[in-house]
Design brief:
The protein is of the alpha/beta class. It has 14 helices and 19 strands. Helix content is about 35%, strand content about 25%. The structure holds ligand PMT.
């Protein structure tokens, strides 16, 4: 329910992606928002207002002269109640109108009369998007402080492939949630490690652990929502990359270490969430090891580099944040790790709570003492951690 209490006015303009706006309404409501739909006349040729009315539970407005609005002020009234005005899909024609400040129907008048943020999700043929006129209009919208979501690249309804399709409803909702987060890390850069590492024994076997990457990915998302440029060095996980985050996929601890050293230079913060294997097999067999009836071979191990400790020991290290997952004595072991790695902040979690699930319980240990973060979804905890990191960055 990440949009609880938010009132969104959703403007639907004429384009085949209008059918996806129906799913968008459903997802917004699932996140706790109330949704008021307004459509252009051409949008009603693709999807009927009845569909949106059934999904939103509210009368849909299409006409400036709607007799149901006794004062004829729908364009004013609708925007005054809104926390955000979202146009999805936004056609090339509609973007042009907004860029020019035209107001010749209910939706364009509503846009001009708004006193709330405007976000638009363009949807059009790739040539229309590439057209210099559309690009000029998009630039004008950006200058005017209007947030453009997408467009995405891929197959188009016309049979062509390219940039111009509306980003998916799930992505639009994630962007809207991000829009409402405080921008505590604007202009900052954050490097994050996440997930497990996989230390190969042979081409099909290896040493790994149960980290799913959920905690690290949640921090990447929260940091990006807060305005940071985020690079995520990820071990093998089954999660989609959070929107707007640059992901570098690695497998072993050595690969993770190399990727971190390649990218750490221009970052303000390094957050090591990955469950890095402490050891790797000294040799990786090029061929699958066969079971030949003799005694099993012992696997000789060698210590992996401690990525976090190495970064913390750089001449001008970023703000380094570590994680400690413990099965007992959390306070003692976490503080011990913080001192050993010489880092200002370590985040303690119990193995039983941290690994795998969607929720966690954290304790932050830094020079000011302990800050417990009660059980919550990982994204909520990630946002609280990001706030703490922003405070520590300010103090630097
Ligand atoms: O991915 P999830 O399923 O959501 O689970 C999240 C998590 C439990 C894995 C995460 O919250 C967590 O606690 N990660 C750290 C696990 C751990 O205890 O690591 P460690 O004690 O081996 O290392 C301590 C710190 O040093 C960590 O920040 C680790 O990333 C870093 N480290 C460790 C070893 C190494 N060779 N290089 C490192 O950078």
């Amino acid at each position: 329910m990440e949009l609880k209490g938010k009132h969104i006015v959703l403007g639907v303009t004429g384009g085949i992606a209008a059918y996806k706006a129906a799913e968008l309404v459903r997802l917004l409501i699932k996140q706790g928002a109330t949704v008021q739909v307004a459509m252009t006349e051409s949008a009603t040729h693709f999807v009927t207002p009845v569909t949106f009315q059934a999904l939103s539970g509210k009368t849909v407005f299409t006409d400036q002269w709607d007799a149901r609005i006794t004062n004829n002020m729908a364009h004013i009234d609708l925007s005054r109640e809104a926390d955000a005005l979202l146009i999805a899909p936004a056609s090339a024609d509609f973007l042009a109108k907004v860029a020019q400040g035209l107001a010749d129907d209910l939706l364009s008048t509503l846009v001009l009369a708004r006193d709330c943020p405007l976000l638009v999700a363009p949807a059009m043929n790739r040539q229309m998007w590439d057209n210099p006129a559309t690009q000029r209009n998009a630039a004008t919208l950006r200058t005017d402080g209007i947030k453009i979501l997408g467009p995405g690249c891929g197959d188009q309804a016309c049979g062509e492939t390219g940039l111009g399709r509306m980003i998916e409803p799930e992505e639009i909702v994630a962007e809207l949630i991000a829009h409402f987060q405080p921008k505590l890390l604007t202009g900052k850069r954050m490097l994050i490690t996440a997930g497990p590492t996989f230390e190969a024994i042979d081409p099909v076997r290896g040493i790994t652990n149960l980290s799913t990457g959920k905690m690290g990915y949640a921090i990447a998302r929260a940091a990006r929502e807060a305005g940071a440029a985020v690079t995520l060095v990820s071990g093998p996980v089954a999660l989609p990359c959070p929107q707007g985050v640059t992901r570098i996929s690695v497998s072993s601890a050595l690969q993770m270490c190399e990727a971190v050293h390649n990218h750490v230079g221009n970052n303000d913060t390094f957050v090591a969430v990955a469950a890095v294997a402490d050891y790797r097999p000294i040799r990786t067999s090029a061929q699958k090891i066969k079971k030949d009836g003799s005694a099993p071979q012992a696997i000789e191990l060698v210590l992996n580099p401690d990525i976090l400790a190495e970064v913390a020991a750089l001449p001008q290290p970023p703000l380094c944040v570590g994680f400690a997952a413990e099965s007992e004595n959390l306070h003692e072991y976490a503080e011990k790790k913080r001192r050993a790695k010489k880092i200002p902040l370590i985040v303690g979690n119990l193995i039983q709570q941290g690994f795998g699930g969607d929720t966690n319980t954290l304790i932050l240990f830094d020079d000011d003492g302990q800050h417990p973060l009660p059980p919550a979804p990982k994204i909520e905890l990630a946002r609280q951690l990001v706030a703490r990191i922003a405070t520590l960055l300010e103090k630097r």
